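One thing: can you check what follows?
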Amino acid sequence: MRLRASIGAGLLALIMLLLALRLAKLQVLDHDYYRGLALQQQTIRRALAGRRGNIYDSRGRLLATSVRRWSVFVDPSQMQQPAVRRATAVVLAHVLKMDARALLEKLHGPGRFAWIRRQIPDADAERVRRLGLPGIHLEREYDRHYPTGQLCAHVVGFTDVDGRGLGGIELELDRILRSSPGRELVLCDVARRVVRSAGDEPLLEPADGYDVYLTIDACVQNIARKELLSTVKQYAPEAAWAIVLDTRTGALLADVDWPLFDPEEPGRSSPADLKDRIVTDAYEFGSVMKPLAAAAALEAGLVTPQSTFYCHRGAWKVGRRTIHDVHPYGTLTVSEIIAKSSNIGIGQIGLLLGPERFYQSQRRFGLGEPTGIHIPGEISGIIRPLRLWTRDSVISVAFGQEIATTPISVAFAFAALANGGVLLRPQIVSRIVESGSGQSVYEWSGPQVRWRAVSEHTAGLVLQMMQRVVEEGTGQRAKLKEYAVAGKTGTASLLKPDGRGYSDSRYLSSFVGTAPADSPRVLVLVSLKAPRKGSYYGGSVAAPACGQILRQTLKYLKVPPRPAGMDLAEARR
């Protein structure tokens, strides 16, 4: 019995020793391995979303921000039984207002992750949480929100569901606005449902995006939008736009493009309506461009405002081509040619300039190349190479044909006349700051001069002619009691859809104006593409809206009223 007891005790001691060694191996030698295995089973590494930067207008009004939302996803591996999947699909589809069959397909999906519904309301998220469905989880995300709705949609742009910029400033400055995600470790139960955080601090803190301040003023934007929509309602164009500039600085104060779209639901609009036409489309602006031809001739010393040209009673035959005016004129001065918008008169001025001088003058006004404004999709416009210019070219370009430019290029070319002949670089971003500290990482230092287009004297003479357009010429419907306005009308035939010749029923109706004329502060360009109701002349269609935008904007900026007081006698002589 003693022998048996000794053997039994020895075996038991051996077994205990082996267990002790095994436990020592598990808890000491293999500790890190099994601890890691336990962590894999009990914890989840979860991404922490950072906040995308806000976008503000020039006065700190919020144009775009990000709000926290819950998103629903499924881990199909936690839902093996077909009956459970079907029941889950039915219940969840009811809560989220989804199609149960489509939802069931997601529950059958491969892998361990599939989105069910992104960025749902908090009330719906709470209903999902209370259901406690196996394999169904909630995750925090940021949803992009635009407090001003459609107001600044084209210039601010929009993002996709993952917060990536797809248009406007959202796209242009995506790398600045975008956040950097962080990571955290969370404990989960056997169903892989999150219980709590596994640590006091995240593994990696998310970094929020930078906040961006624009030169756009939401009040000026609203003024331009209201007037443009009223004009659109009256004339029913295919498209329309309005641009408002600060002539002294080159700051873009308003950029309105119609048709409008909802930046929170861009998928409901066509791709054509999502683009910002002031930079993406080029047109022949017609008679709007005549003051630029006059400026080139004045700058070259070829004419004065009082130089006269015979306008052939409305029909001028040049080779095989006949140039027409809307009304028959005899002899007109250069100033009268601009005021009455004579194609024949300005065509003769173009011939005086000749191809090379005229081509170079158009380039000095920045035409035929991008302005460099921070709006995505800007094109350069079209100016034919100098070697292709003919006698017909200088005539056509003088009254705005055979040269296609973007609306923003036209606006800044005239802004050069308004600020004394200097071509400025457009500005739309005024400041970029760290969202947390508010510390500026970029601040606009003020006007940036590209080059001088014409002398200050020439610019002043052309502004006098443009004031006469409004006082007694084709732009009288832009005339204001409070402020003297200088402007120019344009009614340009649009190309046929096949590009072969000009349409006789579709026009680009435009007006560009600046005020106060003696010391311009604001410049406005309004254009309607193919008006389908009522008149189509720029002086009737676009000039009234331009005048009202100028009047309301100058009052908003507290510019003292300055009625027309410029002596036009010199311009008439």
Observations:
- The first helix runs from residue 2 to 29.
- The chain has a mean pLDDT of 89.
- The chain has two domains: 45-80+110-214, 218-572.
- The longest strand covers residues 502-515.
